[in-house]
Design goal:
- The chain has 258 residues and is mainly α.
- It has one domain.
- It contains 10 helices and no strands.
- α1 runs antiparallel to α7, α2 crosses α7 and α5 packs across α7.
- The two termini are 27 Å apart.
């Protein structure tokens, strides 16, 4: 049975249960790599390939932390539990890169209100090139306050807890920067860039034609199902494939009925 056929309260509880369970799994996995890599990792020729694999997984998990927080900004992480929803989102952003939930929340809603046009903080502002657009994206979401918070955490890790600075760079900074690239390319640039293919509607967003597993691995479905997200912001990341199927079935039913 789909969530759309359930009573709203039951559907909300089911969505919150699934969303929080998946969020907890992402956070636990991220923390396991973070703590192991920063505080217990010992470098040798044999451990280098393992470290590379850990960094790649941690980059994907860091993207997941941001996507969980993104769901919470739309009330989609734990619908019906606003305080829990906000606390989980703020925690994920803090773990990911000491980002401020209160700062990002209004900016993201401006993106939905003015998607792909002036007034959208994610918009390229007349510069459609990837590098120029990324520069604006980075400046929009990364602040001096965040850099201060990251520095303070790094000082605690090194001076009080004895973590090697190199481990902090490899297992926290590199995955965080890699996740910025994933979020920008697959979650902003490709879905909202202008091209020869017109946008399907006024949301000025398109979905990538990629397999579902690739959509999951690149940006937790925010590349492969970005248009569906703009059509239904209350749908969580894990529900976007089902939302596309529901929208397709609805359109086909309308065609048959016309």
């Amino acid at each position: 049975m789909s969530t759309t056929s359930l009573p709203r309260a039951v559907a909300d509880r089911r969505q919150a249960h699934i969303g929080l369970s998946l969020a907890a799994a992402i956070v636990v996995a991220w923390l396991a790599i973070h703590v192991t890599g920063i505080f217990f990792w010992r470098w040798s020729v044999g451990t280098v390939p393992i470290a590379v694999a850990m960094v790649l997984v941690q980059t994907w998990l860091s993207t997941g932390l941001f996507i969980v927080a993104h769901d919470s900004m739309h009330g989609a992480l734990a619908p019906g539990y606003p305080q829990l929803n906000r606390a989980a989102g703020a925690t994920c952003l803090a773990l990911y890169a000491c980002l401020s939930y209160a700062t990002l929340l209004p900016q993201h809603h401006l993106h939905h209100r003015h998607a792909g046009s002036e007034g959208d903080p994610d918009f390229h502002g007349g510069d459609p090139r990837l590098i120029g657009w990324f520069g604006q994206f980075f400046r929009t979401y990364y602040s001096h306050g965040q850099i201060v918070r990251i520095t303070l955490v790094a000082l605690v890790y090194t001076l009080l807890l004895g973590a090697p600075l190199g481990n902090i760079v490899v297992f926290w900074a590199v995955p965080a920067l890699g996740a910025v690239g994933q979020l920008f390319v697959f979650g902003t640039w490709l879905p909202h860039r202008e091209s020869d293919e017109p946008f399907p509607d006024t949301h000025r967003a398109r979905s990538a034609r990629i397999p579902q597993i690739v959509s999951l691995l690149t940006c937790f479905h925010f590349g492969g199902y970005h248009h569906e997200h703009h059509l239904s912001p209350g749908t969580p990341w894990w529900g976007l494939p089902a939302r596309r199927r529901a929208l397709t079935d609805s359109r086909q039913a309308d065609i048959r009925g016309s």
